[in-house]
Amino acid sequence: MAKKNNAPVYLVALVLFLGGLGYLLYSGLGENTSYFLNVSEALAMKPTDLTKARLFGTVAASDIKRPQDAMGVTFTLVDKDQAAKTIRVDFKGAVPDTFKPGAEVIVEGGVNPASGDFAANTLMTKCPSKYQKENRG
């Protein structure tokens, strides 16, 4: 009795597996990728490179403007480590209740080429310390 050669079946399975893996890597790292930067890193980049990015910083104490007839907020985002580095953020959408001056926020969006401001489509605030576990040491 002769043994059946299964090499072609294994070769086809390997090609399908590698093709699927390659597609997942390409789609996962393609256009859905965004930079995660602090304000000073974002200011060091060209505005054309910041079409999709997440910025982390602190809301400045002054110059927060909320439109009366629509949702959203316009504010200045300050770098956590270098307070002199700031960027103006324009967000259109529902503002979280925990948004206030001094709050740490993450905004996601891109630089508006016309104004130079960061046009955010997502605004997330860090939970206040009252929600963190107390240190029981």
Would you write up a description of this structure?
- This protein is α/β, with parallel strands linked by helices.
- The chain is built from two helices and six strands; from the N terminus they run αβαβββββ.
- It has a five-stranded mixed beta barrel with strand order 2-3-4-6-5.
- The model has no long low-confidence stretch (mean pLDDT 83).
Order of helices and strands: HEHEEEEE
Radius of gyration: 23 Å
Q: Got a strand count?
A: 6
Largest sheet: 5 strands, mixed, barrel
| Helix/sheet category | alpha/beta
What percent of residues are in strands?
25-35%
Strand order in the largest sheet = 2-3-4-6-5
Distance between the ends:
75 Å
Mean pLDDT across all amino acids: 83
**pLDDT < 50 runs, ≥5 residues:** none
